[in-house]
Sequence to fold (232 residues):
Amino acid sequence: MINGVINVYKEPGYTSHDVVAKLRGILKQKKIGHMGTLDPNAVGVLPVCLGKATKLCNLLSEKDKTYTATMLLGTETDTQDTTGQITNQTPEEEVMKLSEEKVFDVIKSYIGEYDQIPPMFSAIKINGQKLYNLARRGEEVERPARQCKIVDITITDVDLPRVEMIVTCSKGTYIRTLCHDIGNKLGVYGCMDKLERTRVERFKVEDSITLEQIEKARDDGKLEDYIVPVDQ
Fold:
């Protein structure tokens, strides 16, 4: 049995559960768990714990994470990202009237602790039921706000209606909800267009490896090169 952590680059179209299932087949072992779910259309760092390292999953999931996100202003959807059904829109000419200074000020106002209401399309359970199952049935329930922490936001590009930013945040923060909330505060709606997780604690995107690369490393006898031992 392999013990340690492998820094997987999750590609679009896979759920985090899919990655674990595929790794079980590639590595021929059952004791595998991931550190922090990524939405199917999101990409990036998904550290996966193998063997004895699965005991570290909860500990490492608590650590800060960094994302590169693209926010689309002027559009609200039921999933809070561009994969969902549009529920509200602001005319593009109204969005284009926003000053860069106002966009910066509102985005920066979210740095620090803030109470975030999790989206209906999420795996959080209310009264024993996952929210996304209720959402798919067209039901909406009241969700208690959860305190999260935005450690830092760096705005890298403003090309309205899109804004690119780098967000470092605490566990349990939904970046698509952050985009939704920023849009509402700007008075024009907002949702998330793209998301890449670039860091989970010490695990960085430049050191990550795809499932295909893991399979090749296994065949070449070089898998150990990509496993971070438990003691590290």
